[in-house]
Amino acid sequence: MNKSAFLFPGQGSQSKGMLGGFAEKLVVRDCFDEASDTLGYDLWDAIQHESSIDITETYRTQPIILTCSIAIWRLWCANGGPKPDYVAGHSLGEWSALVCSNVVSFVDAIKIVEKRGQLMQAAVPIGEGAMAAILGIDDALVTSICRSADDSNNVCAVNFNAPGQVVIAGRTASVERAIMLAKDAGAKRALLLPVSAPFHTNMMRPASKMLEQDLKAIRFFPPDIPVVHNLNAGFENDPERIRSLMLAQIYNPVQWVSCIETLKALGVYTYFECGPGRVLSGLARKIEPAFELFSSHDVTRFQSALDASREKG
């Protein structure tokens, strides 16, 4: 039987004007109002209009993308959309998955991801860390190139996004050496990404340690919907173990291909990308061309996904 999963995007999916077509949807605006009241600034205005809020700053991006995803999820539920069999989120998106599976509350998650963004940004001074996308060579070769570029583990593969699509991160000089080696090894593309810190590396351990106290202060519950976790592409029901996974996730690679392969093995061939953009839909297509994929970043696509889910139901 074809099962379904919701996928929640992380950083990199944001854009000015995103979700603008949902402006008249009361459920969406209420969600943004709740987030704005929690954080003390107008998130909807920040993404729709000229604003003093820079949505590319990590501590702004993270709560904004979370809010976009939860707003679409709530609209889905309000319109009678069926509950998926599983949920998964890419990096930051894993927090969206936890909210939708009722592991943590939306308000708690909003506060945590803002703090998460602040700590991740502060962990490494600007210019000392970098990330790069390596396209067109296999994972093992990318890992080998990172070791060749720096034998002190100052650069490593951190996002296994799709076959032939890996993100590396670490010390800036080491990342730049790895880029040159990847090009020499036949990579189709090897380029620096416009991010300000080397996420999902050991350089993020201080951020994880500092976030630990914040996570201890909020309640975690067993998931209502099974969540596939970035760290190990597995499932967890114990709230304390989930708390630990979310701390370790900050400084460990995102095993996204393995997450999707886990879902595929369980019979999941229908995926709904819940939030801005279509990044995860594109990655899923590269992992398995036979997947049925839906996105929800505009009203037309959202309605198409909702109609398709009702037909299946």
What key phrases describe this protein's structure?
12 helices; single chain; about 325 residues; Alpha-Beta Plaits; about 45% helix; globular
Q: Can you identify the CATH class of the largest domain?
A: Alpha Beta
Q: Please tell me how large the radius of gyration is.
A: 19 Å
Strand-residue fraction?
15-25%
Helix content: 40-55%
- Any idea what the shape is? globular
Structural class based on helices, strands and sheet pairing? alpha/beta
| Total count of domains | 2
Name the CATH homologous superfamily of the largest domain. Answer: Malonyl-Coenzyme A Acyl Carrier Protein, domain 2
CATH fold-level assignment of the largest domain? Malonyl-Coenzyme A Acyl Carrier Protein, domain 2
Largest sheet: number of strands, sense, barrel closure: 5 strands, parallel
Number of strands: 9
Spatial sequence of strands, sheet with the most strands = 7-2-1-8-9
- Overall mean pLDDT: 95
Q: Determine the N-to-C terminus distance.
A: 12 Å
Q: List the helices and strands in order.
A: EHHHEHHEHEEHEHEHHEHEH
The CATH architecture of the largest domain can be given as 3-Layer(aba) Sandwich
The parts where pLDDT drops under 50 for at least 5 residues are none
- Please tally the helical runs, counting DSSP H or I stretches of 4 or more residues: 12
Please sum up the structure shown.
The protein has 12 helices and 9 strands. It is of the alpha/beta class and 313 residues long.
